[in-house]
Amino acid sequence: MELWYTEKQTPVFGITAKIRETLVTEKTDFQDLAMIDTEEFGRMLVLDGMVMTTVKDEFVYHEMVAHPALNTHPNPKHVLVVGGGDGGVIREVLKHPEVEKAVLVEIDGKVIEYSKKYLPEIAGELDNPRVEVMVADGYMHIIENKNTYDVIMVDSTEPVGPAAPLFEKGFYQGIYETLKEDGIFVAQTDNPWFKADLIQQVNKDVKEIFPIVRVYGANIPTYPSGLWTFTMGSKKYDPLEVDETSIPEMESNKYYTPRLHKAAFALPKFVEDLCK
């Protein structure tokens, strides 16, 4: 008998993958969690029926959350990752030697626990001495730590359940206040095919708070539609003004390169129109 996992990405559209094995299913205090092993994408973390990461394509998302912002800020010593309990963004952040401390605030400790067990290639740096892992509410951490971080990265699920407050204007205002005077933040902002209204609203909200706002994209095959967006808000530094030759080549990267840094901000016209 064949087993298949299907994510209903909208009420009328989904993606499906053939399963080798179901490794764990658990209803945590915050969400339904599953870890499954698929034939095409390897081990896959699923939260509330949504694919969060897979062994095969995780590098795209994690590199594109971390490197554009860290290569835009000239001296990112203190970095906060909100969410991201799988550890992939933290792994990418630690590739930058100027980062002295990276703080991970994940609301669901089970995500951390099972990622360490089943996704060691993604979560392998969570025990690094430069990392502080906190099982706590990222929204409250933002409110309670003003003027603390050089870069903040919001690695959230889609805007449902415990992640819903992470897409509100008040949260972005809190991020602004938690960043230092030249700080940068970046958040995943879903896809333009199914969540155009979300991208428009986030862009509008962030523009009312940050003087520099840029949207960029990447291709992630297991995420809804495959075309994914990220929104960067900066107090001082424009990612489009970064000198490409100053960006270090990282041989361990599989997606992000110095050439891609500015190219990622070149959006299809229908996505550009959402950001006006």
Number of strands: 12
Kindly report the spatial arrangement of strands forming the biggest sheet.
8-7-6-9-10-12-11
- What percentage of residues falls in helices of 4 or more residues? 25-40%
Q: What order do the helices and strands follow?
A: EEEEEHEHEHHEHEHEHEEHH
The description of the largest β-sheet is: 7 strands, mixed
Relative strand content: 25-35%
- Tally of separate helices: 9
Q: Which parts are unreliable, with pLDDT below 50 for 5 consecutive residues or more?
A: none
Provide the CATH top-level class of the largest domain.
Alpha Beta
What is the CA–CA distance across the termini?
50 Å
Given helix and strand content, the structural type is: alpha/beta
Which CATH architecture of the largest domain is right? 3-Layer(aba) Sandwich
CATH H-level superfamily title of the largest domain: Vaccinia Virus protein VP39
* Domain unit count: 2
Overall radius of gyration:
18 Å
CATH topology of the largest domain: Rossmann fold
Whole-number mean pLDDT: 95
**Outline type:** globular
